[in-house]
Amino acid sequence: MNTYFNKIIILIIFVLYTPLHPYTYYRSINLNELNEDFILETKRIQVSRYPHIFNPSIVKWKNSLLMAFRIHDNKAISAKPIGLVWLDENFNAKGHPYLLKIRNQKKYTSFVNKRSPLREQDPRLIVINNRLYMVYSNFQIGRVFVAEVHYDETGFFLDNPEGLFHFDNANKHRIEKNWVPFEYHNNLLLAYSISPHTVLLPQPGTESCITYAHSLKQIPWSWGEIRGGTPAILIDGKYLSFFHSSMDITNTRSKHKKIRYYFMGAYLFEPNPPFNITHVSPNPIVYNDFYKGKRYRTWKPLHVIFPAGIIDNKDYIWVSYGKQDHECWVVKFDKKKLLNSLQPI
After folding, report:
1. Which of 68, 130, 183, 336 has a C-alpha 20 to 30 A away from that of 75?
2. How many domains does the chain have?
3. Is 19 within the bounds of a domain?
4. Which pLDDT score is estimated for 317?
5. Percent of the chain residues topping a pLDDT of 70
6. Which of 154, 148, 151 is nearest to 132 (CA)?
């Protein structure tokens, strides 16, 4: 009898002192009315020939801005090859876009999604020693790939991209994607997971990675599993990156029906191994137009904000993001206010 009543008391204490689940919190909030004071503006990036592009990664290379993006075939509800286009300083497309060419691609055995027509997805661009690299996912094969990006008079191409198949705890039945690239001592490192923070070092020519660093710190976050977003860049002595997460919630826009929402958050981690994460957004970063706009047909009802690129511009941070799997946008952050908004772990 005493044991029974002890369990009841413990349950009552747990209910009374456990914070409200974010599903309950967001159920009564209009996400379209929120507006972080460190967000200064947003802008849509449009590219001729391709009205439906999304998940853009932007980088500074050859004294200009370069954007890689996915192309959506609105009729077939599928993705075409990755595209690239040069941008001016105001994030306007200049010149014509290019379709990425992949040369000398090894014929890997597809062991995850043999019937899937989807292949290269969600490119991240990163510059190391003035050389441009792309980290992307091959959805059909189910692995992350790395390759140097080359540019000539015909356009952009990858030569002999390498799939990363072998690493600690690799699971051939899991689709790997959204690893976070960053540069450390002229090496390309990849954060395999963020919470806990596990960092891999690719071993060129071996299709493998070694675990370079591992931190057991967990990020307090209640809006779905934390997954990679933008590359990480050094800002004031620490790496800054933006992640994404998702969960099913209700909202005024969804007429109180459950819909999958994708959220954006930011985090900082130490500049040296084990790369402990030190600060994180206390809540999803939301702006008043993130979840507004045209509705598109997606594989299921979604409201998507997907960060994929980051640019440091003195007093400001620009983040490129995909919206609704059909649009490319950038958001401008006041750097000081953004960093001050992050809470220590």
Report:
1. 68
2. 1
3. no
4. 98
5. 83
6. 148
Residue 293 lies in a domain: yes
Q: Token match 């007429």: residue?
A: 255
- Is the pTM for the entire model greater than 0.90? no
- State how far the Cα of 113 lies from the Cα of 76, in Å rounded to an integer: 18
| 17 occurs within a structural domain | no
Range in 26-40, 112-126, 137-151, 262-276 the model is least confident about? 26-40
Does an H or E element contain 80, and which?
strand 78-87
124 Cβ contact list (under 8 Å, min separation 6): 57, 68, 134, 135, 136, 180, 181, 230, 231, 308, 309
* CA 266/CA 307 separation, integer angstroms: 10
Is residue 184 domain-resident?
yes
CA distance 309 to 322: 10
Q: What is the DSSP string of 16-42?
A: HHSPPPHHHHHHT--GGG---TTEEEE
Strand, helix or coil for residue 14: helix
Q: What is the mean pLDDT of residues 11-39?
A: 53
How far is 226 from 194, CA to CA, in rounded Å? 7
Range of the domain at 241: 24-344
